[in-house]
Design a protein that fits this description.
- The complex is a heterotrimer of chains A (274), B (321) and C (275).
- Chain A has 274 residues and is an all-alpha fold.
- Chain A is built from eleven helices and no strands.
- In chain A, α7 (142-169) packs antiparallel against α10 (210-222).
- Chain A is globular, with a radius of gyration of 19 Å.
- Chain B is α/β, with parallel strands linked by helices and 321 residues long.
- Chain B is built from eleven helices and 15 strands.
- In chain C, α3 (59-83) packs parallel to α7 (144-172) and α7 packs antiparallel against α11.
- Chain C is globular and about 65 Å long.
- The chains are: A mainly alpha (274), B alpha/beta (321), C mainly alpha (275).
- Chains A and C meet through α2, α3 and α8 of A and α1, α2, α4, α8 and α9 of C.
Chain lengths: 274, 321, 275
């Protein structure tokens, strides 16, 4: 199984990167997260005017930077399903191999972990000195950061698998599925505004999403002078742990269910483009 | 005017990142008369599809000139597209969510056919290929054979003067392939039409084609009717004769039209004649010599001719590198 | 050959309607798109509105996000349902059938855009409605006739850009897809999709006018949002510039499509899959 997963990872990496030289590839891969971050910076500047709140800006930037993982994971996994089924037309051949389909997809789209890291690190490394953010690498709580990242990324992988399952069942909209779900999470996970801004029922929803606590835990670890009570999330650790486990289980179960439906309805080689 | 004419057409695919330079076609001189089914026979990688792509204006030759219905494929391709159509074997084109009728209507519009005319032609052609009851079925629910029939109908909607068929029966079952071939023969009778057919099914080429070009490693080895190719390869009609008595092969060899004689087990003769007509005389001579119990004529196959001309079978030819 | 070949314009219209047909029909037959391509992306727009609220910005700033969300829907339609479509058509085997037919590529692209506009317009309308009803954005309703005119002219320019970009997809395939995909957020940034483009500084704002969405959005903001002190140019001038832009970009698209089709035929890329 490991050999198959390694081959799937290499395939996914080749598909994503072999269109250009490594440098050109890296340049284009960083444009989107940098662009998204700059949009937030200018929104901040336009809205805040002359006043300055570096911790708030750092809070925004860290959320935007870490969002690269979410984009890469959720878009990458659902897009892999569409790509393999509708364009490359190899999905059915993969399914009939002994390698578990979930393992294949996880590995095939596993480049999200690599690219998410590259993008997040790049955005933070560039914005800290340019914008004067209160993030000092000597002051980062690395233990908390690593722990938060590990738990958060596992939860994200589970969500991605659930999304891959949905992608199997819808028409040409696997990309729309990914983008749509990212849009929902963007709204309710405290990525770019505090969850306290949301109406009560949405804020309650935000409190069962592991990403909310993941982002909060990472911010607490990274930002110097961060007040944990300011943005209304509270202690993120145990909620991150239990919500992460639940979402991992839900995601894997959802994938299993949709995979079964795909087999029942013959969806592995169905083309629905228009 | 020829339907298709080439003058030393060549196609070289230049080396790119990760690929080598490939000479797909070299000095192809071909003339396809109008009103014929013309076959391109050769193994995978011979250059058949490359040549069809050049004729159907999807690819440019790197050397030489090609003309279809007198139009230069390089400079007059826009006008040429009104007169041609194409179908590939194993084609997966189309939009799964559309029905057969909708898909066909869509392509009819690309060929400028008024909707009323298109609907009538679609109904007529679907009936001919036996797809009428599937007309309102979504394409993703069709079997491979039905899809290919639909693709064939699509190609015929515009009533093209030249139809390019690139391995049209690839992957089809025997019955569907037979239906497709049968329809093509009928279609040819309806007007001045030309089909250029590529295939590596020898029997299909033998059955359908008025002329065949054998192509290998990007070059045309020879062109002729199936009969001419067999004769070129030195093949004659062969007769297997079971006799009652004993027939002396040496005596038979002295009979004029006889080319070769071999005996198998004393009662079975295999005779080839050096001219096309002579079977009547042969029966009489053998009957006089030994009495004829059974008399069977075997035609040499195109595969026999291909092997003789190229030195090996299609499967044995080295792939193009 | 079928008798009575139609004139170029009639044939073009036939092609447009025929290619738009699968888009419209497909959308009706798989209605899941309403949820995934309209409802869910709406939420990303809402998120940015909430950012302005968290920063306690004036209400008209939320109007920037709403108008930006509506316009970006058309931009995405231009890129993914039009420009990039030829690459996907190539993978499906449809592109070679289009090219072997007498239908012009620009007409086919127009059909794609028109068909895609059905779902895109719904998405844009949903965003505007959300802004007006839920967020109480202070739209100037008397400005809607001018806004529709601005929108139509901007779309003409946008779709012209889409046609020009499709030639890149035709030639460069996956390379173009990766490149254009990577430019999504930078385009939103430079066009001032979610904030006044002048905030970028005059130089960057002027450079941003190379994207037709920039002038279109700036003009829309002027006619639909009151008290906008961030305008780049007066909106009638922006409309005139957009008209010129649309004409120029269509001509460029026509030239580029011809050149790229020829180049792709020379290199043998027209039917090369998995590129």
């Amino acid at each position: 199984m490991l050999r198959g997963m390694a081959a799937a990872f290499r395939t996914g990496w080749a598909i994503e990167t072999n269109w250009a030289s490594p440098l050109v590839n890296a340049f284009f891969s960083l444009l989107r997260p940098v662009g998204a971050t700059l949009i937030l910076v200018f929104i901040y500047r336009v809205a805040a005017g002359e006043s300055s709140d570096p911790v708030l800006l750092a809070w925004l930037i860290v959320g935007a930077a870490l969002w690269a993982y979410v984009m890469s994971a959720l878009q990458g996994i659902s897009f892999a399903v569409q790509q393999e089924r509708e364009w490359l037309k190899v999905l059915k051949y993969v399914v009939v191999t002994p390698l578990p389909f979930s393992a294949y997809l996880l590995a095939r789209s596993g480049t999200w972990l690599v690219w998410g890291t590259i993008r997040a690190v790049f955005v933070i490394l560039v914005t800290v000195p340019v914008l004067g953010l209160p993030i000092s690498f000597g002051a980062v709580n690395w233990g908390e950061l690593v722990g938060a990242m590990a738990m958060g990324l596992v939860a994200l992988a589970g969500m991605g698998m659930g999304l891959a399952g949905i992608a199997l069942g819808v028409a040409r909209h696997p990309m729309g599925v990914g983008e749509g779900v990212i849009g929902v999470l963007y709204l309710i996970s405290g990525a770019i505004f505090p969850i306290g801004q949301l109406p009560g029922w949405l804020e309650a929803t935000a409190r069962v999403i592991p990403l909310t606590y993941w982002l909060e835990a990472c911010r607490q670890a990274l930002i110097t002078g961060y007040d944990p009570t300011r943005f209304g999330v509270g202690d993120p650790w145990s909620p991150l742990a239990w919500s992460g486990v639940i979402w991992l289980g839900v995601g894997l179960w959802a994938f299993r269910w949709f995979n079964h439906r795909a087999r029942a309805d013959g969806l592995y080689d169905r083309t629905t483009d228009y | 005017m020829e339907a298709i004419r080439t003058e030393k057409v060549g196609r070289l695919f230049k080396a790119r990142r990760g690929t080598k330079e490939v000479r797909a076609l070299a000095e192809i001189d071909l003339i396809v008369p109008p009103g014929e089914i013309f076959g391109l026979l050769g193994p995978n990688g011979a250059g058949k599809t490359t040549l069809i792509k050049i004729f159907s204006t999807l690819l440019l030759p790197t050397e030489g000139k090609a003309y279809v219905l007198g139009y230069d494929v390089e400079t007059q391709f826009r006008e040429l597209r009104w007169h041609i159509s194409m179908v590939s074997g194993g084609e997966t084109s189309g939009y799964g969510l559309l029905t057969v009728r909708e898909q066909l209507w869509m392509f009819s519009q690309f060929h400028g056919i008024p909707t009323k005319t298109a609907r009538r032609r679609i109904d007529e052609l679907l009936e001919v290929v036996g797809l009428t009851e599937w007309a309102d079925t979504r394409i993703y629910n069709l079997s491979t054979g039905m899809r290919q029939k639909m693709n064939l109908v699509r190609s015929l909607l515009s009533d093209p003067e030249v139809l390019f068929l690139d391995e049209p029966t690839l992957g089809l079952d025997v019955e569907v392939a037979r239906d497709v071939r049968g329809y093509l023969v009928e279609w040819m009778k309806e007007g001045e039409r030309t089909i250029l057919l590529t295939t590596h099914y020898m029997a299909e080429a033998d059955q359908l084609c008025d002329q065949i070009a054998i192509i290998h490693l990007g070059r045309v080895l020879t062109v002729g009717t199936p009969e001419e190719l067999k004769r070129q390869a030195g093949f004659r009609e062969r007769y297997r004769i079971e006799v009652d008595g004993v027939a002396d092969p040496a005596l038979l060899r002295s009979f004029g039209p006889v080319d070769t004689v071999s005996m198998d087990g004393g009662a079975r003769l295999t005779v080839t004649l050096d001219r096309e007509r002579g079977s009547g005389e042969l029966i009489r001579v053998v009957g006089d010599l030994a009495g004829v119990r059974s008399f069977t004529r075997e035609e040499p196959s195109l595969e026999d001719a291909f092997i003789a001309l190229t030195g090996r079978g299609l499967e044995d030819l080295p792939p193009q590198e | 050959m079928i008798d009575n070949r139609p004139g170029p314009l009639r044939h073009g219209l036939q092609t447009v309607l025929a290619r738009a047909y699968p888009r419209v029909v497909g959308a009706n037959r798989e209605p899941s798109w309403v949820f995934f391509e309209v409802t869910l992306p709406l939420l990303a727009t809402v998120a940015l509105v909430m950012v302005y609220r968290a920063l306690e910005a004036p209400a008209r700033f939320e109007g920037y996000v709403i108008l930006g969300g509506a316009m970006t829907a058309f931009w995405l339609n231009t890129i993914w349902n039009m420009a990039a479509q030829f690459r996907w058509e190539k993978e499906n085997g449809n592109l070679e059938l289009y090219l072997a037919s007498p239908a012009g590529l620009m007409w086919i692209l127009t059909g794609m855009a028109l068909g895609g506009s059905f779902s895109t317009s719904l998405r844009a309308a949903a965003v505007i409605t959300l802004g007006a009803v839920v967020f109480d954005v202070p739209f100037v309703w008397s400005g809607w006739p001018q806004a529709l005119l601005i929108l139509l002219i901007t779309l003409s320019a946008l779709y012209g850009v889409g046609m020009a970009l499709s030639s890149l997809f035709l030639k460069f395939g996956r390379n173009a897809e990766q490149g254009i995909s990577s430019l999504m957020e930078p385009v939103f940034l430079l066009s001032g999709a979610y904030f006044p483009v002048r905030a970028l500084g005059l130089g960057a704002a002027v450079a941003g006018t190379l994207i037709p969405m920039t002038l279109g959005m700036d003009a829309l903001r002027q006619v639909l949002l009151s008290g906008d002190a961030f305008e780049l140019l007066a909106w009638p001038i922006e409309v005139l510039l957009l008209i010129v832009y649309a004409v120029v970009v269509m001509l460029i698209a026509r030239w580029a499509l011809k050149r790229m089709e020829h180049a792709a035929k020379v290199e043998g890329r027209l039917t090369l899959r998995w590129q």
